[in-house]
Write a structure and sequence with these properties.
With 505 residues, the protein is α/β, with parallel strands linked by helices. 36% of the residues lie in helices and 17% in strands. It has three domains: 176 residues, Rossmann fold (3-Layer(aba) Sandwich), CATH 3.40.50.300; 41 residues, no CATH class; 184 residues, Nucleotidyltransferase, domain 5. It has a nine-stranded mixed β-sheet, sandwiched between helices. The longest helix has 17 residues. It is elongated and about 85 Å long. This is Terminase.
Length: 505
């Protein structure tokens, strides 16, 4: 299945920094890269790669690279590894820069391009002639030293992305792969600053698009866009971004073509349009992920489940001691069964609900540990009600507790504690909690676990409503437990009498 009219991926990026002067063989080293890939390696660059190296290889009149730093953004599976391999070999064997360093979040990722470069060097006669014979050997792996050495003394090394990457080295060409994964400045500071004493140095930061946590990518992109818009800032920072325009439909072929320059070439259209239509139908997290990975769009947190400013404003140091007779406690288990939380809540005299941390368990077997410790914890807290959300991952643990109750096991349930599942509308529990936070009807004491999970919680659509979710790694079981505890506390009767649990319908 092809795109309408034989549409091909865009050779030219949607956003890019224009050259200072016409690009020719004298003003850009990119023309030589194109010829090297075609005539020496026998692996011509794709059209978008040719366009990129010509524009990225622009030189100043004194011979230095026009761009000391390049940010290249392109959707996955468009030939990025091949491009990096060709560049590294060109810098080693043609321009003969003393040190080329490749850095990625995992050493295995950096090694992918390095392995390809080694294979090309060994299999290409013109390059093999320039490898050293005997000692030192051309290729070395191990002892934290992975490098390709030429007879000219030039080296291509790789390193994992950590705070030691590039330290004590003088780097001439730096490749920072998957810069979207850099969530601190440690790696960037270590590797980029190793070019300080190299006036002809150049850094290629290349990646798919990232999210709010990609601080280096976002800082570079914001700065480069600022220069494009105002002409002020760092003119030696270049942006070359193949991405779909914001607001496009995820299955729009023209939008896909802007982010995937190899669409209709090495990428088949049906491999793009089929997943695009599934993501569009699913919406929510699936659509957000597709926009980042395939449309190369900067998608911030899809929909924060709880307003961050309102949550910060809800901080009020205190405890539940004065309202102990109205406390409700809720247990929640994370879907991966690797985290369990127990939170308490009670309605204060002024009508607001306070939520408070009781206990958390994590790691393998955390559910079993929570089950064993729960009776003693409830005996200590002495809540009026204990509950759980029955249609989620807590169901298995709740079934074990129900079995204890059926067998009349001593200590369960604790005396005076009503034990019931919170039946009914889970989206109402989630949305009600979020609305109460915004309305100033919830207070908390700044529990680090809950603060962290609230910051990462997103809305996962359920028809016209939504529940808590989290894109990527992490949990939201603490948010569920806190929300359900507030809900349970609000359904407790305020007058004296036998405790009972009202359920959401």
């Amino acid at each position: 299945m092809g795109a309408p009219g034989g549409l091909l991926g865009s050779t030219e990026p949607r956003l890019w920094t224009p050259p200072l002067r016409p690009l020719t063989e004298e003003t850009s080293y990119g023309f030589a890269v194109v010829a090297f890939a075609r005539d020496v390696l026998g692996m011509p660059l794709d059209p978008w790669e040719e366009w990129l190296v010509i524009h990225a290889g622009e030189m100043l009149e004194d011979g230095r690279p026009r761009f000391r730093t390049l940010l290249v953004l392109v959707a996955r599976q468009n030939g990025k590894t091949h491009l990096l391999t060709v560049l590294a070999l060109f810098w080693l064997f043609v321009e003969r820069w003393p040190l080329v360093l490749g850095v990625s979040t995992l050493l295995d990722y950096a090694k992918e391009a390095w392995d390809a470069a080694v294979q090309f060097a060994l299999d290409t006669p013109e390059l093999a002639e320039q490898l050293p014979v005997g000692r030192p050997s051309a290729v070395k792996e191990g002892n934290n030293d992975v490098r390709l050495l030429t007879s000219h003394g030039t080296r291509y090394k790789i390193a994992a992305a950590n705070r030691r990457a590039g330290r004590s080295l003088r780097i001439d060409r730096l490749i920072v792969d998957e810069v979207r994964e850099h969530q601190t400045r440690a790696v960037w500071n270590a590797a980029f600053n190793a070019m300080n004493a190299r006036p002809f140095g150049q850094c290629w930061a290349i990646s798919n698009q990232g999210d709010d946590t990609a601080i280096i990518l976002n800082e570079l992109r914001t700065s480069a866009l600022g220069f494009l818009e105002t002409g002020e800032g760092d003119q030696r920072l270049g942006l070359f971004e193949w991405s779909a325009p914001l607001g496009c439909e995820v299955d729009d072929p023209r939008a896909l073509a802007q982010a995937n320059p190899n669409a209709g070439r090495r990428l088949h259209w049906d491999d793009l349009l089929g997943p695009a239509r599934r993501a569009k139908k699913a919406g929510g997290e699936a659509e957000a992920d597709f926009r980042v990975e395939v449309l190369c769009q900067a998608v911030p947190k899809l929909r924060p489940a709880i307003d961050p400013d309102a949550w910060r404003a809800a901080y009020e140091l205190g405890d539940l001691a004065a309202v102990r007779s109205r406390v409700a406690v809720v247990l929640e288990v994370a879907p991966d069964q690797q985290h369990v939380t127990l939170y308490a809540a009670a309605v204060l005299p002024d009508g607001r609900a306070r939520v408070d941390f009781v206990k958390a368990w994590d790691g393998p077997g955390c559910g079993d540990r929570a089950q064993r410790e729960l009776p003693a914890l409830l005996e200590r807290v002495k809540p009026r009600a204990f509950g759980w959300l029955p249609n989620g991952p807590t169901a298995a643990l709740a079934a074990a507790l129900a079995d204890l109750r059926a067998k009349g096991r001593h200590g369960w349930p604790p005396p005076g504690v009503t034990v019931e599942e919170i039946r009914g509308d889970v989206p109402a529990v989630c949305m009600g909690f979020a609305q109460a936070v915004v309305a100033g009807q919830v207070v908390h004491s700044g529990d680090p676990l809950l603060d962290s999970q609230v910051a990462g919680a997103e809305q996962l659509p359920r028809g016209d409503a939504w529940v808590f979710s989290r894109r990527g790694d992490g949990h939201v079981d603490a948010v569920y437990a806190a929300a359900a505890a507030v809900h349970l506390a609000r359904t407790l009767p305020t007058s004296a009498g036998k405790p009972r649990v009202l359920v959401a319908r």
